[in-house]
Structure prediction request, 700 residues.
Amino acid sequence: MRLQKASCIVIVLFLSMSIGIAQEQPNLALLKTSTEKITAWHNYCNRILGKGDFVNLAKEAKTGIEITPKDSLRAKTMFSLFAGVAFENLKKYDTAETYLLNARDMALKINHQSYIVLAIAQLDNIYGYTNNIAKRKQEIELLKKIGDSTTNQETKLALYNVLGGYYRDINNYDSSITYRLKHINLYKQLIKSKQMNDTINLAFAYTNLGNMFNEIGQYKKALEYLYQGADIIGDRALTNNEETLYLYFMNAYKGLRNEDSLLKYYKAINTKMAGRDTLFNVLTQANSTLADFYSGKDSNKVNKYSILAYQYAQKSPNADSRMIANIAFARLLNVQKQFSKSNKILHDELQEDFEFNKQSLATTYLLLSENYAALQQWDSAYKYQNLYSSTNATILEATANKNIADAEAKFQNKEKQIQINAQKNQISYANKQKWWLLSGLLLLTAVALLLWRNYKQKKKAADILNKKNKQLGELNLELNEANKTKAKLFSIIGHDLRSPISQIYQFLKLQQLNPDALNETQKASLTQKIQTATGSLLETMEDLLLWSKTQMNAFDTKMQETNILNVVNVCKNLLQLNSDANNLHYEINIAENMQITTDPNYLQTIIRNLLQNAIKAAPGNSLIVINAAKNEDATKLSIQNGGSVFTQQDFEKAISNQDNNHSLSGLGLKLVDELSKKINAEIQYESTATTTIATLTFKH
Prediction:
């Protein structure tokens, strides 16, 4: 169920505390002070909110804002919250957003944490419902800052609820379950201590958690929490914004393959939705669930429910509902071999924002790949198959912990080894079968017909054996490629970090062995440089490790807009101690806003290696010049240094010489050459009698 109802109930709890019994519309003319008028109108709005009369609440909340003096920010915040909740429930999200943003900003000014959390909770609900990702992230970051400082139990309750829903939407199930359990436990404590007496919000917490277990395939566990919530909700299901309890039950029973219970809740939805044609998202999801359940079993029912889901989805404002229904209908067209029509729906689907629904995006890519393959448009089929594989990998990664790189590598190697063992077992079995066939052939040589039959069986077994051998060879090639990729990543990390680590070690050794060689000022300066260099080294190491995690299977570029000056400064800071050791200076001529489309990790590795070589070659007290220029045809980045010259001929000889594999400079140049080609850049060396210029050219 959406968090809208849960957060609405929390607003009731907060805004109605210590108010007493509300009355009918007060006669403000009989009240003398503004405080009396505000209190009376507050009570009145609470009564309207409790009845769920959002049309009237929207009107009276605006009246409350109008009668409140400009300097009474707390009261204006309170009435703005009433208005925001009202317009949200009336599906007027733009107007609701305006009031809630005003409420949040005023609450921040007076540091009223409860109101801040309530405003953000409602904004998060709106942005989640309308799929406004950027604004939602912004509000969640603000919410987490408040959560670190608040001690108010009711504020924490609302905060846990919002964070639980947010982390579920981005597939971080561990964090979501943690916050939802915190929310349930805290709510039960508040009920036990009689600080709260309305249990409906606890029911929503149970059902939200139940659906979480649906999503991770633990359907029996899901039913435990769903029934706890349903016991509290009772006959309020599908009323007062409790829209999706029955959908959650349908998901659980679909997972358990219990058709009777699944149809029971589907019928309940259709019965109770009579006269409520605004909740098309509920009807969309219910029909999509049945279409999926009957897939592969009853094509007529799949057709029926897929079409119903698609029709309801066209009227639904809920992006998730539209995605589910469009995919189901596109799959139906695929089965009916209407591949072009299926593709049109899927390409329209790609206009949605999939930030919080990667699984639907992956399914869309997969269906597009299958459609294009059926149309024999192999380039497009291959393109969308790759997109599906990449997106599916992202989904798996979102559920892992911070050590996912090691876990993935071990898992993949283990899975491949299992496959190899299985292939070996099948080959062994095929060999045994072959010998049995040969023995039978020797025993029945007199019977020509049986000889022929055995010959055919032998040939079939041999074909199976060859096929399995071919598959085994492909698996071995994949393993070798994975090992080569890992070796290359470790070479990059070792090569790029060896020089700065060595320089830091030498300075520390100097301090240890000859502490009197430097005065206090020099020691302080050196210590500061070591701290700066160590910090840059740590950041670079973390970037390299993160990059290596994304590259474990193969070196794939991720092209994006990259600021050249930022990358150069990162590399310069990492190698600062090396530069200071030779008293080298820098002249950097790069515009602050100059950007190119490239892979930032590849570019950083290339610049680190070029800059290391320049520092090694440059004589003491000299200047290293780094320039970048951009024209219509190309962007050029150059690093110029004095000292012994290095020519283009030297570069080509170094990268072609196999004996350089164990040389650090040789390895660095090979990396520069290989990575430059991957980002479509060209490296050239120019030299004079005293200078060397390394130029990296990006053609537009």
Summary: The chain is about 70% helix and 5% strand. Residues 400-536 form one domain. The two ends are 49 Å apart (CA to CA).
